[in-house]
Structure formats: structure tokens, C-alpha cells
Amino acid sequence: MRKTGPVEIVKPRDIAEAVRLVKEGGRPLAGGTDLFVRIRKGIENPPFLVYLGELPELQGIRLREEGAEVGAAVTHAELLRSPLSARVPILRLAISALGAPAIREMGTLAGNLANASPAGDGLIPLYLLEATVRLAGPDGEREIPVEEFVLGPGKTALRPGEIIRSLWIPFPEGKPLSYFRKVGRRRALVIAIASLGALIWLEGDVIGKARLALGSVAPTVLRPRQVEEALVGLPLEPEALRPAAELLSRATQPISDLRASADYRRKVAGNLLLDMAISLSHRD
Amino acid sequence: MRIKFKLNGRKVELDVPPGRRLLDLLREDLGLTGTKEGCGEGECGACAVIVDGKLRLSCLTTAIQVDGKEVLTVEGLARDGKLHPIQEALVETAGLQCGFCTPGFVMAAYALLLENPRPTREEVRAWLSGNLCRCTGYEKIVDAVLLAAEWLRNRDG
């Protein structure tokens, strides 16, 4: 199973060279927290890797009036230390649940997205905030919504030679309440059995608007829009949300795997909505 | 490729394949066996080292990624034959049994105290969540980190 020799890695000077090398068949490498494991287990065997982690054009977080541009090489830990995570609590909540300190120092948010895992903790805030992906490729640059970028487990809309240049994270309007919880067997380094992230805008005593994103219960992170709509007008209390929780359970399309059965995941997804109501209504 | 980096304060230069794991480079090429290989896939923290002041796992880091950087391993912590306060505190609290996971815990604690010199017990526990000890005994390890934090604060004023 274990690959004995080290994999070939090249370090491009700029984006143009990176794009050329990726077009030639090189696999982009950022933090390597996932890719090195996959290569070592023999799940992937790319001819060579293109190390993007230190490419100057992919560094840094640029805060703007209406959002932030996060370079593709920005690590989770950099995000947590930046003013952006204070400005957007859902980002901080989800990313601080991802991996463990060393993994967060190494792994990047763009890499988490490129892996396109339905369990990716970092993807939940990107779906909730309706972030977009800025891509650089042989035919120039383009920008697409995260929801269109992820096509399925491990599948993205990246074309041959394309790399992620940055993520655009728009700030949400107003001051929504933020919720994130992942259920798994260990708190650190765990791949979620199910996770729920939410942004809830209150209007007086009731929910005025809601965005929900679930991990590990469908082939991609799921935005159950019919449930989001069903929440509007309801008080943020577990009893009031019970029918919506059932609707949410039915909206999931989970699989059974070694971590949990599909039935259990469906049940947990609904319960997470009730947990959200409990924890957000007990805020001070 | 020819890589140059600083290892425990000393300049190192050597020819290695760019994809050689830092873990193998340290243990096999440079003979520093303090850094341990536990799981080899980022789950256990036994191979943790510090690169440019930040905690990293040497099993998931390659040679090309430390070129031009400063690497600190458990061997680089003692000064003039005296253990680092984190190591001393682990001795004091008996925060180890077989000792295999210890270098990883020491380096993780080192990174924590760089970032947060005054951690709460809960913060220490959360930070060390990426390190596994299979003899069990996390309580005494947490005690040690809190004790070391106190010693370091007193020492550094």
C-alpha cells in the first residue's frame, strides 16, 4: 500500500508557470494535509506535484468594504488570526472545528474547497456566505459560485490547467446569528458524521431569513432551501422548529459508510436544527 | 534538489528529493530521532515540529516546503544542558509514561505558549487535541503545560 519513493514536486515562480505545469498533468499542492495522505495510501498517483503554497500571488487576505478576497495559499490558522474571522463569526466557528492546530497551520481553505469533500468543514461557511471562487487557467481568469464549483465528492468544475487563485467571501448583510456544529466520534481531526452551519437573521421575535448548510449528508454540502424558507416567520425555539427539523431530515441524501448509517445521519441532521434553536435562543 | 534551512539554530544544506518527508529527512538523513512517526497521516501529532514559529506535522511536510525556513525540533529546546521549561514541567508532573508521544506534545505545547502565554486549562486541552497519547494520562500533560506556562511567565517577567 505504502508508496516507497518520494513524489516529484516542482515549485513554479508565478501563476502563469503554475498553470502551465498543471496543464501538463501536475497536481496542485498547497498544504498537503490531504493530498500527501492520499498519495501515501496509493489512492492517488499523480506524475508530479506543483507546489502552490508559497506562490506570492496566492498569499494574503484583502479586506474590502463588501467582503474579503482570500488568497488560495492562505491557511486556516492565518484566517483564524486575521480580522476577517472576527468580522465573520461563522468562518471562525467552522474553521476552528477543522482538524487540529498543526493541520490548521498547514491546510488552506482553498485546498479544502478543491478537495470537494461533502464533509469539508471549511466548505460550510463558504456555502452560507455564498462565496465565489476565482480561477486562473490557460484561457485567463473566471469566477464562479462555490455551489457551482463543487460537482460531487472530489469533483470540481476545474478545467485542465486551472487553479484556484482566491476565494471571494462577501460579508453578510446585517448581523445574523451564527451556528456551527459537527457531530463525530472525536472532537479533533474527525471527519463529520453530520454537520450543520447556519446564519439566522431575526426580525423581532421571529426568524426573518435563514441560510443552512449541511455537511456529510449528501454528495456535496447541502443548502436545503425549502427548509430555509420554512423557517421564516417561526420563533427561534426548538418546539416551533420540530416540523422544519423533520423536513430537514427528509431533505438529506446521506449514505451509509464506516462512520455512520444513512438513517442515523438523517436523524442527526434534523436534531442539529433543534440544537441550533436551543443554542441560539440561549445566547446572551 | 539542494535545500538550505536552519535546523535548531544551525545552518543545514543537503541534497534531497524535493518530495522527501521532513520526518525522514530529520530522522534518517540528519540522525535526529527525537521526532517520532506515529500514524504517518496527520492524526496523532507525534511528528510535530515548529517551522518558522508555527506548528507543523513533519510526516505531511516535504523537503521543498522547508527550503529557506527555520525548523525547530525537540532536540533544539534544551539550553546549556538544561531542559526547556516545558520538558522540565513534564518531568515534574510525571506527564509521560512510554514517552513516544512526548516530543510531539512538547512541540505542540511550545507552539501554544508562543501564541498564548496564558492559556486556560480548556484552551490547553483543545490545543493538544491533535496529539494522541495511548498510555493515557492527558491530565498530567495538561498540568505540565499549565505549569510550564507559569514558569515561563515568571522567568520572562
Verbal overview:
- The complex is a heterodimer of chains A (284) and B (157).
- Chain A has 284 residues and is an alpha+beta fold.
- Chain A has 3 domains: 9-51, Uridine Diphospho-n-acetylenolpyruvylglucosamine Reductase, domain 2 (2-Layer Sandwich), CATH 3.30.43; 60-170, Uridine Diphospho-n-acetylenolpyruvylglucosamine Reductase, domain 3 (2-Layer Sandwich), CATH 3.30.465.10; 177-281, 2-Layer Sandwich (Enolase-like, domain 1), CATH 3.30.390.50.
- Helix content of chain A is 34%, strand content 24%.
- Chain A has 12 helices and 13 strands.
- Chain A has a 5-stranded antiparallel β-sheet.
- The longest helix of chain A has 20 residues, at 262-281.
- The model of chain A has no long low-confidence stretch (mean pLDDT 94).
- With 157 residues, chain B is of the alpha+beta class.
- Chain B starts with a strand and ends with a helix.
- A 5-stranded mixed β-sheet of chain B has the order 2-1-5-3-4, with helices on one face.
- In chain B, 36% of the residues lie in helices and 15% in strands.
- The model of chain B has no long low-confidence stretch (mean pLDDT 96).
- Chain B has helices spanning 22-29, 85-93, 102-115, 121-127, 138-156, and strands at residues 2-7, 10-15, 48-51, 54-57, 70-72.
- Chain B folds into 2 domains: 2-76, Beta-grasp domain (Ubiquitin-like (UB roll)); 85-156, DNA polymerase, domain 1 (Orthogonal Bundle).
- The A-B interface holds A 5-11, 32-33, 36-37, 40-41, 49, 51, 53-54, 77, 99-103, 105-106, 187-189 and B 17-21, 40-43, 45, 48, 54-57, 59-65, 108, 111-112, 126-127, 129-131.
